[in-house]
């Protein structure tokens, strides 16, 4: 793989707008109206959220990520997809570069809800 060009510079203020948090994936369920989407139930410590992710065709068993702690963008507006509501976005690595994606995870377990940055 040849790495893509680096995107244009942003300001620290732009970066500070993102709210990226660690959360533990409690459940993975298929979204009936979609070939790609799964519904993740994620524990963020003080609350749980449903987050849709297009990983259904990227993994032989999407359920293998249950119990994993990963990084999520949590301050996106809720979005309706395939009849389900998504309350954030899973961070993964590789998809944009045509690679089989892997989860962006914490080095060690941290309390759910910890912020990145």
Task: Please describe the structure with a list of short key phrases separated by commas or semicolons.
117 residues; mainly beta; OB fold (Dihydrolipoamide Acetyltransferase, E2P); two-stranded antiparallel sheet; 1 helix; 9 strands; 5% helix; 34% strand; globular
For the record, the CATH class is: Mainly Beta
CATH topology: OB fold (Dihydrolipoamide Acetyltransferase, E2P)
The CATH architecture classification is Beta Barrel
Q: What share of the residues lie within helices? A: under 10%
The number of strands is 9
Write the CATH homologous superfamily: Nucleic acid-binding proteins
**SSE order, one letter for each helix or strand:** HEEEEEEEEE
Strand-pairing-aware structural class: mainly beta
The geometry reads as globular
**Rg over alpha carbons:** 15 Å
Largest sheet: 5 strands, antiparallel
Strand proportion, as a percent range, falls in: 25-35%
Strand ordering within the main sheet: 3-2-1-4-7
Number of domains: 1
- Counting H and I runs of at least 4 residues, what is the number of helices? 1
Would you identify the regions where 5 or more consecutive residues have pLDDT less than 50? none
What's the average pLDDT? Answer: 95
The end-to-end span amounts to 28 Å
Would you write up a description of this structure?
With 117 residues, the chain is mainly β. It has one domain: Nucleic acid-binding proteins (OB fold (Dihydrolipoamide Acetyltransferase, E2P)). The protein is built from one helix and nine strands. It has one helix spanning 12-17, and strands at residues 20-30, 38-43, 48-53, 69-73, 79-81, 84-86, 89-90, 92-93, 102-103. The chain has a five-stranded antiparallel beta sheet with strand order 3-2-1-4-7, with no helix packed on it. A two-stranded antiparallel ribbon has the order 5-6. The two termini are 28 Å apart. The relative contact order is 0.26. The model has no long low-confidence stretch (mean pLDDT 95).
């Amino acid at each position: 793989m040849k790495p893509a060009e680096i995107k244009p510079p942003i300001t620290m203020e732009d970066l500070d707008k993102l709210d990226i948090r660690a959360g533990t994936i409690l459940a993975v369920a298929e979204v009936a109206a979609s070939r790609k989407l799964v519904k993740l139930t994620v524990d963020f410590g003080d609350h749980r959220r449903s987050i849709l992710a297009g990983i259904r065709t990227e993994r032989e068993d999407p359920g293998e990520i249950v119990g994993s702690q990963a990084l999520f963008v949590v301050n996106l507006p809720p979005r309706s997809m395939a009849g389900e509501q998504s309350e954030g976005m899973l961070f993964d690595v590789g998809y944009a570069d045509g690679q089989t994606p892997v989860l962006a995870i914490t080095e060690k377990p941290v309390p759910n809800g910890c912020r990145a940055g």
